[in-house]
Predict the 3D structure of the following.
Amino acid sequence: MSERQAAQPSILQQQQQAEINDESLLESKDTLETSTSSEAVTETAPITSNNESQEDASSTIVMNFNGESWVEIYDGEGEKIAFGVKKAGYIMTVSGTPPFSVVLGKHDAVDITLNGEPVDVSAFPKNRLAKFTLPLAE
């Protein structure tokens, strides 16, 4: 056997080394999957922050306009969140911090929900501006 042949591993030695490498890869993969799984659990664990309490304080108003009406809405922080004349068939959704200051030109032409609950504005006089605060006082 020449020096070159002696220096080169035999086919059997190459196959054995390949099997060892394959087993090492499988063990590494199992370790990786285990660590990835625990990392995933760590990443998806609930995180509490001040933002959650702020989001919980937000409310949503949906107005379905059955006829043309003027609308103006300010949220509890004084920010104007809706303004203008809306046409029949328009559905407007706004969110903000309650309480909301609302002005409607023709309240009887608008169906309103606050956080999915219907708001009854039928008690307001017809043919007049309706000025009210949402949520309505009980």
